[in-house]
Amino acid sequence: MTDRRVQIGPADALSAAVDTRDRNTIAMVTEAIRHRQVLMAYQPVVQSARPDRVAFHEALIRVMDDTGRIIPAKEFIATVEETETGRLLDCIALDKGLGALARVPWLRLSVNMSARSIGYRKWRRILSRGLDRDPTVAERLILEITESSAMLVPDLVASFMQDVQARGVSFALDDFGAGYTAFRHFKDFHFDILKIDGQFIRGIACDPDNQVITAALLSIAQQFDMFTVAEFVENASDAAYLAGLGVDCMQGYYFGAPTVQPPWQDSAGDARSA
To answer: Where in the numbering of this chain does the EAL domain appear (predicted)?
Structure first.
């Protein structure tokens, strides 16, 4: 009798494992949304010349799993990015960010978004409603788009930015240097802020290659009159080098970890790292 059992090779087994992991991740995030277990962690972005002064905070999405563990975006965002779940997360992040800005009149906040959400009606309604409700919110809101996301639909992103910037909203190009930017599109974007990817920042004080790359990225930002932020600053020597290089602002664990209990919510309580 012929054995007709299908032999599963290593590649097939790996693919099946990845599919299972992705399904589990999407299910976890979907459940978190259903049970309202989505929250924001806030990380300060400080002025290089005066690190004791916060220029703005970045709002970072988090979900809570069924054990109560807070899960950072890096563990799920790539999996849900192209799905309906990803659009719902963008809606929640924007809604929570706009709510914080409405409640705290001195707060300036950046909220991450995907270029895919530009055409998502619910997300656009949340943005319009938030800007209409409080005229001061627009000038205190920064929308962050990663370099890779912006390049998915560059013409749509450029048109959207032009419309929303007219209302006073600023835009940040996140993770600059990590992806591929066609400079013919870069000139059309008119980003207000350029955030230099952390892979070029970590250890920059003693890494000649990163020093040259970061200086080149900084030069591009200055040419286009963009405010600069160095991401993932984790020690004093890197901070000092970046300040000397002329970076406008810095963000990283050296200045503060993301927290779900920011100072404007509970100034007396201990911040909870997330």
So the answer is: 22-272
The mean pLDDT value of the chain amounts to 89
Q: What is the pLDDT of residues 101-112, one digit of tens each?
A: 999 999 999 999
How many angstroms separate the CA atoms of 23 and 182, rounded?
34
Name the residue with tokens 């990225």.
Answer: 217
CB 196 within 8 A of CB 218: yes
Residues 165-178: tens digit of each pLDDT:
999 999 999 988 87
Helix axis angle, 236-245 to 208-223, nearest 10°: 40
Type of residue at 52:
D
Give the CATH number of the domain where residue 230 resides.
3.20.20.450
Could you read off the pLDDT of 190-209 as tens digits, one per residue?
A: 899 999 999 999 999 999 99
CA–CA distance, 15 with 4 (Å, rounded to integer): 22
- Which domain covers residue 208, as residue numbers? 37-251
What is the number of other CB atoms lying within 10 angstroms of the CB of residue 100? 21
